[in-house]
Amino acid sequence: MEGSNYSVVSELVFLGLTNSWHIQLLLFVFSSMLYVAGITGNSLIVFTVASDPHLHSPMYFLLANLSFIDLGVSSVTSPKMIYDLFRKHKVISFKGCVTQIFFIHVIGAVEMVLLLAMAFDRYVAICKPLHYLTIMSPRMCLSFLVAAWVIGLIHSLVQLAFVVNLPFCGPNVLDSFYCDLPRLIKLACIDTYPLEFMVTANSGFISVGSFFILIISYIVIIVSVQKHSSGGSSKALSTLSAHISVVLMFFGPLIFFYTWPSSSTHLDKFLALFYAVVTPFLNPVIYTLRNQEMKMAMKRVCRQ
To answer: d(Cα 78, Cα 117) in Å, to the nearest integer?
Structure first.
């Protein structure tokens, strides 16, 4: 972030979500409730998995880490967005903006790898059940987690390495409620088209590529599940439907941000709000409502 010393711009101004007082009030109530509910739900999942011995398995280990990441998704942009709703002058320091972008990309990449790991876990559990405990060993689970954070850090640092030293000497207004890389680059005082293309292609390729890998893996799993007529098939399909729902909610906004050629600002804001506030709330709801074992574990934890 030392590159920001070369910048004349010391702070950035957000235009926010809307200028309507009534809509701002509605958004404040809606966002605050979902933010608190998301933090509570994801924290409860992390605590339940950590404290209940019945959930000490690879699937729940990965789920707990996904919930931990969702705590980060909620906290990177939502608190400031909620705080700014009734402020006329919505500002963030340049260093604060770069920091926000750094954590957005770290968390996004980590969650992407965790979703891939969870798909692999379900594939092994359903297609190779006899070898499940051997393949999904504690060492393998830890390797997935380490790989997720290493990839997330490298991805974010590589993206920011080209940005922090750009000269920002003029406009400082972002038509958004948070800092994002494509919009920040456009404020630089030089021709940034090659850099914009590189950032968009990088994040877009990673998002689309990971999404198609996940979809293909789930198709393979579903085909394998339907070959079985045992009672476990319905349970497996219920678990898979929860995973697929979370994947669609996560990748939908990301793919739109980085691959749509001429996006609408209003749609951008709606999807960003959905990703930052609604998705972290829905993820624990989806996983708990469709998982009887998790619901029973939460009841045991609440009785303690």
So the answer is: 27
